[in-house]
Write a structure and sequence with these properties.
By secondary structure, the protein is an all-alpha fold. Helix content is 75%, strand content 1%. It contains 16 helices and two strands.
Length: 444
């Protein structure tokens, strides 16, 4: 059974309205960047416990693992614009509450963590709805450009946000930083409402009743898994992304490697880590430029191979300049792959299943990361505190999984249609339609 309520595609906004929409999302991403540092700092200010501050840094990952799959199913039933507006209200309320409670000294660690989990869950719903909204609002040939711009804003926000928290906290206190964080979601709400119009805008698919959507969640998740399994290219890319996250998790050892193994000092370690952020921004430009000229599947494989090679290189580099270059390449190749994988899903997955498939892929990727981090730490301990063999092994295994992904799905995948670059290319023969209970089929 397909969801007729989301089958209609909303009318695309004017270029000016869409630029306003993208600007609002850039501001919203700065809010996400602010939260990266603001929540742990708030916990540390209230408790003075480094352990509690570490706990405050995990709500986002845990929140995605808890609500990611149901969020994908519900977003497919509901109007993505309505979901985005609701989640902006929730996040605004959370950070406004934190700011007020901080100013009145009524905060405790359990309250902070509970509100942080609420904000993280709302962020999961928002990000999933944003993926679907971009699919609705953007012509297929412009998906790479839009995803590149959003990812560039995301990478920039992760650099600007923590620095802005430090500046605002030093000048006016942490509660002001929290208030600014809340305001970023108010800006996002206003721009979504302005760009995507009112509830009764002509051509817009209405949201299903929430009770009906909740009743259908289990069956919708099953249909989402069927779709993922039947679209070989998307399935292979999802497995590749999860394996890449598994191996990339050894990057948590980078600071330890720089400081304790190579004895390069704090300033050198900061420079190497910052190079990864710069590489991430450059990676969006690479995705934008090459994504118009080459098959996305080929670029994803090349990016993943570069990722594995640079991981292995980190295991043999011993001086600052090679480490800077390698981490820059690692950040760039990772983000290039992220942009193109997101675009590939939007291009091949049926519109009414996009939320579920997107959420499933992200949950798989996030679940792999802590497993890789724990394995990397344990293996480093077994090697007497030397992480170099771990970097080498992770890089080699990453290249191997990329080669397998190329052989079993990416090499013979869809070709771009003439005249539109990577526009609305048809799926490969392996991307079979999804049979439904009534004998009908959904095709991208």
């Amino acid at each position: 059974m397909t969801n007729a309520l989301t089958a209609a595609v909303p009318a695309r906004p004017s270029p000016l309205r869409f630029r306003v929409f993208l600007g609002g999302q850039s501001v919203s991403l700065i809010g996400d960047g602010l939260a990266i540092l603001a929540i742990p700092l708030l916990v540390l200010e209230v408790s003075g416990s480094p352990y509690a501050a570490v706990l405050a840094a995990i709500p986002r990952t845990v929140g995605y693992l808890l609500v990611g799959l149901p969020a994908g199913a519900l977003v497919d039933w509901l109007n993505p614009r309505d979901v985005m507006l609701t989640m902006d209200v929730v996040r605004f309320a959370v950070f406004l509450s934190l700011a007020v409670l901080a100013a009145t000294s009524h905060l405790s660690v359990p309250v902070i963590l509970a509100l942080a989990f609420v904000a993280a869950g709302a962020g999961v719903f928002f990000e999933t709805a944003l993926t679907v909204a971009v699919r609705d609002l953007v012509e297929p040939e412009h998906l790479v450009r839009t995803n590149s711009l959003l990812e560039a804003a995301n990478q920039g926000a992760q650099i600007v946000g923590p620095g802005l928290v430090g500046l605002l906290s030093a000048l006016w206190g942490l509660q002001v930083a929290l208030l600014v964080n809340a305001c970023t979601f108010a800006v996002s709400f206003a721009t979504v409402l302005h760009a995507l119009g009112g509830r009764d805008r002509a051509g817009r698919a209405p949201s299903a009743p929430l009770r009906q959507a909740l009743r259908e969640v289990r069956g919708d998740l099953v249909r989402g898994f069927r779709c993922l399994r039947s679209l070989r290219v998307v399935l292979v890319v999802t497995c590749l992304q999860a394996s890449a996250n598994l191996f990339l998790a050894v990057g948590y050892l980078l600071v330890f490697y720089l400081r304790d193994t190579l004895h390069l000092g704090a300033s050198a370690a900061s420079a190497v880590v910052a190079a990864g952020g710069v590489g991430g921004v450059l990676g969006t430009a690479v995705a934008l430029r090459l994504g118009r000229r080459m098959r996305h599947e080929t670029l994803i494989a090349l990016s993943a191979a570069c990722l594995g090679t640079t991981l292995a290189g980190l295991g043999v580099a011993t001086s600052l300049v090679p480490l800077l270059v390698l981490n820059l390449l690692l950040g760039g190749s990772t983000v290039t792959a992220v942009v193109l994988i997101r675009t590939l899903r939007q291009r091949l997955v049926p519109r009414e299943l996009l939320g579920r498939v997107t959420a499933t892929a992200r949950v798989a990727a996030l679940a792999a990361s802590p497993v890789g981090a724990l394995a990397g730490g344990a293996l480093t301990t077994l090697h007497h505190g030397d992480p170099r063999p771990v970097f080498l092994a992770a890089g080699a295994l990453s290249v191997l999984t990329t080669a397998l992904a190329w052989a079993f799905g990416l090499r013979g995948a869809s070709r771009p249609s003439s005249g539109t670059g990577q526009g609305a290319a048809a799926p490969a023969p392996s991307a079979a339609p999804v049979p439904e209970a009534g004998g009908t089929a959904e095709t991208p």
